[in-house]
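Researcher: Go.
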Amino acid sequence: MTVRFTVDEDTAGEAGVRADHAVRARYPEVDRAFALRLLKDGRLRINGAQATLAARARAGSVVTIDAAANKLGPAVLPPGPACTVLWQGDGVVVVDKADGVAMHGAEGAGDGGAAEDGDGDGEDTLSALLLERFGVEDDMPGPSFPGRLDRPTSGLVVACLSRPSETALQAAWTRKDARGERDPVLKKEYLCIVHGRAPGEGDLEIPLAARRARGRGTGKVEDARTTFVTLAQSRRFSLLLCQLHTGRTHQIRRHMKAIGHPIVGDPRYGDARRDGDIRVDGAQGLMLHAWRLSHDGSVAALPATLTAPVPERFRALLRGTSLVVDDAVAAAARGERPSRAGDDDGDEAPASTSGGPAKAAPTSARPARPATERPAPTRGGPAKVAPTRGGPAKA
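Model: Structure:
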């Protein structure tokens, strides 16, 4: 196995030194004797050439190590604007991606991210950053992501740096049940802030036009299911905890628009008029955040639960309302069901509905434009999505 990384002039002791010293600067747990042995055994290369005692690793040089990542320990990745490391294991790193950071170059789409939302110019992407800071094993061109995020979405991202971890986590992510339906071992939950007072909970089964079919009139649609629980509310906003049961392009964003509660700050599916009325410093951007990843203990490569802290833009938006995002999220982390969703004056009833969760009304298989009506919860029963002429909501 091999690991490679790009020498960074901003990392102390990494640039302008011998290859073994650069390795120790990048991997602090590597001891001096082991690093020197790698060099003398010909297991270090600088830009493809075998490293020597006289050769120096300059800023921008690529150092290749003929050793498994688990022999090196964690790499140095200082907290920065692009991402913060939440956890690192054998061939796996989990980071908290900042909003506005693209996952990868233009060759692919994200987990619910179309190319224009998920991709960047290559140099400033999360993939490039992780490749530079951690390197990858074997013949991998770069880190692989079993679940990806749109560019404007922040939060938890799992990156595989080795083929074994990639194989194990992809299998956990794409597992299907006996009926052939998606049943991933890994459960990923998102926080979002939407406009208006959303139902207390919802189970949205709204088919969505396939990404390649949108705008082409091909009529291809895909089943899509999102469930959510309303954690807290103010008069203007609702804080939701959402879970994807399918992985369609921009699924949460499109489903929230379809039920008349678009995500605040969504440039594609949002409400420009209501977004324009928000005048709060630090509250810019899409209010969607990948918050928690969990499993039943069967995925050896990851801890049972990982969380990415609530972003500051959420707090900034809700400052001045009675909705305290940290309290609501802490209660959700403890597994508590929301008992009350107040409003700005603290005198409104909970946002729960009797009669079961909100259910999207069935629609035909022919794609149509997204629902433009704003459905409201009915007293004593679940909220219904108003059917559109010609078929299901389409983003």
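Model: The longest strand covers residues 187-195.
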